[in-house]
Amino acid sequence: MEPSQSGATSSRNVVLTVLVAALGYFVDIYDLILFSIVRTKSLASLGLQGDALLDRGVLLLNMQMIGMLIGGVLWGVLGDRRGRLSVLFGSIFMYSAANIGNGLVQSVEQYAVLRFVAGIGLAGELGAGITLVSEVMTKETRGYGTTLVASVGILGAVVAALVGDSFSWRTAYFVGGGMGLALLLLRVGLFESGMFESARTREAARGDFFLLFRSAARARRYLSIIFMAVPIWYVIGILVTFSPEIAKALGTEPLPQAGRAVLFCYIGLSLGDLASGALSQVLRSRRRVIALFLGLTALGVALYFTLGGASLVGFYAICGVLGFAAGYWAVFVTMASEQFGTNIRATATTTAPNFVRGAVVLLTLSFRALVGPLGVVGAAVAVGVATLAVAVIALGSLEETYGKDLDFVE
User: Is the pLDDT of residue 121 over 90?
Assistant: First the structure.
């Protein structure tokens, strides 16, 4: 093949890789958020009412989160042992099939099993996609690729909110499953990461999750990556999810709808991811940009508690501002992939986002435990202060990774 032809083929592969990873994450986020949107009406149609709607809803959400925690480790290990592509498409197929199954359920028990299966599938797409994009692009430009993946993907939440409100809950699930299965057709022409193929020939353990903890320095790096991103899910899991309860305590009239708060927050998140990712390329620094967005998140939280009670329009606007400020997910996953060698890169990049999502359980438990002594607002403030403080400390312990050569093993 002539050099020009080889270059054109390589460029097409990069574009296709970014496109597939972005659309895969789009469908991933669509399904992740869709359950929260259709939870009440889907359970009501299965015959539940009153307190059972909340109790069974919590059960289904926990089944999904348990599946994601297990899937994060499973897909991460497979990504380093079998390849990034196998995980990328295996996870897309699993959560797409589970989506279609969710639209066919006739009982809560069936629903719970399929939310667990969906959770396992949802856990693999982002890490595999980001790892593959990071390894096929140059070290100077990969930040743009991962930014597009995260920014386009997060818009899946916006579409989920619109589809979930406009169609029946079963149809909404079928739409998600159909989009995922259609995406598998783009697999044709996609190539495996050259770095992964090279790592196969090296004498280094691949896909060993516990390798992340066999060195104190490596364990500190991994945990710092996770703690650094927890404020993102503090915003989503506490301030936005419980917005009706917190807004009531703030005196907001009329009370906001959680679904509408999620919509504005995720629009802000998508714009924030675009801005933070592009800025990390312009400034040639991941750490400085994350520090800036942590500062913006702290400011957004302050606005939420001081001005959020003024009006409903203002409350929704602040949710959008908070989403933008917490929109450093793209830089976080990019930095996670850049911190570790090729032999455990998929493991780290796949598990870290799912452990961050799983941290919502600890955040909500802490929030509920503090409501008694501190009240709703006081509890939310206390959890936020602690979360942001830990994130700042964690970021301070991490090295800069912009432009780092990723062709190495641990």
Answer: yes
What stretches of 251-285 show up as alpha helix (H) in DSSP?
258-282
For the chain, helix, strand, coil in percent to 5 are 80, 0, 20
Buried b vs exposed e over 141-164: b needs ≥16 C-beta within 10 Å? ebbbbbbbbbbbbbbbbbbbbebb
Task: For residue 328, give both structure tokens.
Answer: 């450093």
pLDDT reported for residue 7:
45
Rounded Cα distance between 332 and 349, Å, is 10
Cis peptide before 231 (omega within 30 of 0): no
Separation CA 192–CA 152 (nearest Å): 22
How many whole angstroms separate alpha carbon 58 and alpha carbon 76? 27
Helix (H, G, I), strand (E, B) or coil at 283: coil
Instruction: Select from 186, 160, 149, 187 the least CA-distant residue to 99.
Output: 160
Amino acid present at 23:
L
DSSP 236: I
Cα 9 to the center of its chain, rounded Å = 31
Instruction: Check residue 47 and give left, alpha or beta (phi > 0: left; psi -120 to 50: alpha).
Output: left
Is residue 30 within 8 A of residue 167, CB to CB? The reply is no
Please say whether the dihedral angle defined by the alpha carbons of residues 119, 121, 126 and 128, taken in this order, is positive or negative: positive
**How many Å apart are CA 265 and CA 29, to the nearest integer?**
14
The sign of the CA dihedral 156, 162, 164, 170 is negative
Q: Residue 360 above 90 pLDDT?
A: no
Q: Which amino acid is at 377?
A: V
Three-state DSSP state, 401: coil
Q: Is 120 exposed, middle or buried (0-12, 13-18, 19+ CB in 10 A)?
A: buried
Q: Where are the alpha helices (DSSP H) in 137-250?
A: 142-166, 169-183, 194-199, 216-234, 243-250
Chain centre to alpha carbon of residue 136:
21
The alpha carbon torsion through 78, 22, 123, 169 (nearest 10 deg) reads -140
DSSP classification of residue 106: -
Mean pLDDT, residues 158-181 taken together = 93
Answer yes or no: is pLDDT of 4 > 50: no
Average pLDDT over residues 382-392: 98
> Could you give all domains of the chain from N- to C-terminal order, each with its CATH number?
1-186 (1.20.1250.20), 212-401 (1.20.1250.20)
Residue whose pair of structure tokens reads 């203002």 in the numeric block: 314
**What's the predicted TM-score (pTM) here?**
0.86
Instruction: Quote the pLDDT of residue 2.
Output: 42
